[in-house]
């Protein structure tokens, strides 16, 4: 197998794993509350990633600044988004959740414009951001916006998932500003900090693991071991070998896989407007990344 063939294979694996996480959350919510789901998922991932420390000789970071960044990333990149997205998926179907989270690269772009010296937006990138934002507005639809005068449940659920996407983006920017730490070591430390912070939720939920429906239990196990730990390892592997620009292709593939799974497995009904919104969001991301292609790797 050639190097490029292995890149595509890993990219396909990441797409399937990440894109399937929204479907797995739907099943996990049958037996666990959103915060419990996030806590158990993180704890499982921390245990798996911790085992990889046996195969590395990298030393722990020594600076307080590094630990401050790692702690912030643990909260913003794991604890908050996992909980927010799971909470939102109590009302939002898995396919639509995958589309909403697809705005993450657009949020990275906006935050980079503010916080990263090299992230200043060009006019053409602003156009891409506007196109993607239009897709978000179309996806939420007038029925959600009209809820401002009535039942806010659907609107708040969608905003919670968008909040999760924003958290992912902010964690990405924090990672870019963080002092240099080996990727695997950073991933392990972040997950262990997140697991420690979620411990007050994880411990009371442990007895529930014995009584949860089998579908919910299996979904949580898959989310923690495969959808969080293994994807983290494969992601860092792919970025190191194929570069960030190639790896960013999952931004286009994951939402389409999530929508397809929702339709096939859960018989979710996805409107033409939602497909049009997905096209706008992906087009916006594509426009911004085409303009930043020279600096993507």
Question: How would you explain this protein's 3D organization?
Answer:
The protein has helices at 3-28, 34-51, 64-88, 94-101, 104-115, 123-145, 153-177, 183-197, 199-205, 208-211, 214-242, 244-247, 250-266, 272-291. Helix content is 78%, strand content 0%. The chain is mainly alpha-helical and 297 residues long. It has one domain (3-295). The relative contact order is 0.22.
Can you tag this structure with a few keywords?
disordered C terminus, mainly alpha, 297 residues, 14 helices
- Beta-strand portion reads under 5%
Secondary structure class reads mainly alpha
General shape: globular
Number of helices: 14
- Number of distinct beta strands: 0
* Secondary-structure element string: HHHHHHHHHHHHHH
| Global Rg | 19 Å
Supply the number of structural domains.
1
Average residue-wise pLDDT: 85
Main sheet?
none
Helix content: over 70%
Distance between the termini: 23 Å
Poorly predicted runs are: 293-297
Task: Describe the SSE topology.
Elements: H1 3-28, H2 34-51, H3 64-88, H4 94-101, H5 104-115, H6 123-145, H7 153-177, H8 183-197, H9 199-205, H10 208-211, H11 214-242, H12 244-247, H13 250-266, H14 272-291
Helix pairs in contact: 1-4, 1-11, 1-13, 2-3, 2-8, 2-9, 2-11, 3-7, 3-8, 4-13, 5-7, 6-14, 13-14
Task: Provide a quick synopsis of the model.
This protein has about 300 residues and is mostly helical. It has helices spanning about 5-30, 35-50, 65-90, 95-100, 105-115, 125-145, 155-175, 185-195, 200-205, 210, 215-240, 245, 250-265, 270-290. The protein has one domain (about 5-295).
């Amino acid at each position: 197998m050639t190097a490029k063939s292995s890149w595509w294979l890993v990219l396909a694996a990441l797409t399937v794993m990440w894109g399937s996480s929204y479907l797995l959350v739907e099943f996990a919510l049958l037996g666990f509350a959103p915060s419990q789901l996030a806590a158990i998922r993180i704890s499982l991932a921390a245990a798996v990633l911790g085992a990889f420390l046996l195969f590395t000789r990298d030393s722990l970071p020594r600076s307080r600044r590094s630990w401050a960044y790692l702690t912030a990333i643990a909260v913003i990149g794991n604890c908050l988004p996992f909980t927010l997205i799971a909470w939102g998926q109590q009302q939002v179907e898995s396919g639509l959740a995958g589309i909403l989270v697809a705005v993450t690269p657009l949020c990275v772009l906006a935050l980079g414009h503010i916080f990263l010296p090299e992230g200043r937006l060009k006019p053409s990138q602003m156009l891409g951001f506007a196109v993607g934002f239009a897709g978000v507005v179309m996806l939420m639809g007038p029925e959600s916006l009209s809820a401002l005068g009535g039942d806010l449940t659907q609107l708040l659920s969608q905003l919670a998932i968008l909040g999760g996407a924003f958290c992912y983006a902010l964690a990405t920017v924090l990672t870019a500003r963080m002092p240099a730490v080996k990727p695997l070591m950073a991933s392990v430390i972040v997950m262990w900090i997140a697991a420690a912070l979620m411990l007050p939720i994880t411990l009371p939920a442990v007895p529930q693991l014995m009584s949860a429906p089998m579908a919910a239990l299996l979904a949580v196990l898959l989310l923690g071991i495969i959808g969080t730990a293994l994807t983290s390892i494969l992601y860092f592997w792919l970025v190191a070998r194929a570069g960030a620009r190639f790896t960013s292709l999952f931004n286009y593939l994951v939402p389409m896989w999530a929508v397809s799974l929702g339709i096939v497995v859960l018989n979710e009904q996805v409107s033409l407007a939602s497909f049009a919104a997905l096209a706008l969001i992906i087009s916006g991301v594509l426009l911004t990344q085409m303009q930043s292609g020279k600096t993507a790797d």
